[in-house]
Specification:
There is one protein chain. The protein is of the alpha/beta class. It is 42% helix and 15% strand. The protein is built from 14 helices and 12 strands. The chain has helices at residues 5-16, 46-59, 74-87, 98-108, 124-132, 145-153, 176-185, 208-211, 241-250, 252-255, 262-277, 280-298, 318-330, 360-372; strands at 32-34, 91-95, 115-119, 136-140, 159-164, 189-193, 220-225, 235-239, 303-304, 310-314, 333-338, 349-353. The strands form 2 sheets. Strands 2-8-7-6-5-3-4 form a 7-stranded mixed beta sheet, with helices on both faces. Strand 9 (303-304) and strand 10 form a beta hairpin. Helix 2 packs antiparallel against helix 11. The longest helix has 19 residues, at 280-298. The two termini are 41 Å apart.
């Protein structure tokens, strides 16, 4: 029977507690949200939603084509210019998603004969970029510049190291300065995914590369998402103008994909301008994350100290993690639940995302619910 193997896979997932299901949410929910990536609380901000609506009224519901045909509008160019300026890079290129931006950066910058050194804890989009690239990939130990240095030392030819700046599972930060030093010793490029750093780290939320003094370097390329701190949708690659020009001509997820919808570009641009005007939002997100961690560990839970806005709480097993998240939801709290294969070490977790707009009472409530529902 066609696709008969799917039933076997479904049963294996069920036994392992790894079944994933869609749960459509209503426009208004009574749940306290610590599951989304809306770090700055901007997804429903009036200026952001009006930016989306105004763009849709002006440019239409969709971009109408790929960026190289009809999908580039003046709004896209405006967003790219302001993103590059805010983050400290020469140029930027907007994509339909952060996933597409990562695929573009890795595949276009790792041609045949090149070496990609990829952190063991990288996001799935970076891993898929490595799989699709024509270069050879070597996985390096997590957050270990010496492992990157060793891998690069054994290769002759073009090379690039690839890493998240803040890892999405535990919220720990990559040693960016050490990675840059290792790459420069061997003339390699450095590609950094700052999905969880933009809007949270750096001066006024300018990102982890900016905080590390790497913004604008001619050997550093950064990808970002518009769907987390900026409360919208889409992604971008930031870097030297010549690299961005190369992506326009070589990145398949740019050339062959429909451009980002104008509404999403308008929302991101409005959020970026709001962040410029209210830089304290970035610091507040970090403060909330640290307070969550302090209270959770004081309650006897095993929580990983956050370097940005992600707080990870260890669970005993995949099945117990699912039940824990469900019990939290029943008690009015929405939290993320990470299980294999989303977690590279096989340890299941509740994943909490700190938001700049959370009150002290909401933080206290979240910690209480998580503690009362623990397995």
């Amino acid at each position: 029977m066609a696709f008969g193997w799917i039933d076997e896979q479904a049963e294996l997932r069920r036994r392992a507690g790894l079944v994933r299901t869609l749960r459509p949410r209503a426009a208004e929910s009574p749940l306290l949200d610590l599951a989304s990536n809306d770090y700055l609380g901007l997804a429903r901000h009036p200026e952001v939603t009006e930016g989306a609506a105004r763009a849709a009224r002006t440019w239409g519901g969709g971009s109408t084509g790929s960026r190289l045909v009809t999908g580039s509008t003046e709004l896209h160019a405006e967003l790219e210019g302001e993103l590059a300026d805010f983050c400290g890079f020469e140029a930027a290129l907007v994509f339909s998603s952060g996933y597409a931006a990562n695929l573009a950066a890795v595949t276009a910058l790792a041609p045949h004969g090149s070496l990609i050194v990829s952190d063991a804890g990288n996001h799935a989009s970076l891993i898929d970029g490595c799989r699709l690239a024509r270069g050879t990939t070597q996985v390096a130990a997590h957050a270990d510049p010496d492992a990157v240095r060793k891998a690069l030392g054994g290769h002759q030819g073009p090379a690039v190291a690839v890493s998240d700046t803040v890892f999405s599972v535990d919220g720990d930060a990559a040693p960016l300065t050490g990675l840059a030093e290792a790459c420069r010793e061997h003339g390699a490029g450095l590609v950094l995914d700052d999905a969880h750093g933009l809007g949270v780290l750096g001066d006024g939320g300018r990102g982890a590369p900016h905080a590390a003094g790497l913004a604008g370097a001619d050997d550093v390329v950064v990808t970002v998402t518009l769907s987390k701190s900026l409360g919208g949708q889409g992604g971008a690659v930031l870097g030297p103008s010549r690299v961005i020009g190369h992506l326009v001509n070589a990145a398949r997820t740019f050339i062959f994909d429909t451009g980002l919808a104008p509404a999403a570009a308008g929302a991101a641009l409005a959020a970026l301008r709001l962040l410029r005007r209210e830089p304290a939002r970035a610091a507040r997100a970090g403060e909330v994350a640290r307070e969550l961690h302090t209270r959770l560990t004081a309650a006897g839970l095993e929580a990983v100290r956050p370097d940005a806005a992600v707080v990870s709480v260890r669970a005993p097993s995949p099945g117990q993690a699912v039940r824990w998240a469900a019990d939290c939801r029943a008690a009015g709290l929405s939290v993320g639940c990470f299980r294999p294969p989303s977690v590279p070490d096989g340890v299941s977790r509740l994943r909490l995302t700190a938001r700049a707009d959370l009150s002290g009472a909401e933080i206290e409530r979240a910690v209480r619910v998580i503690g009362e529902t623990r397995p």
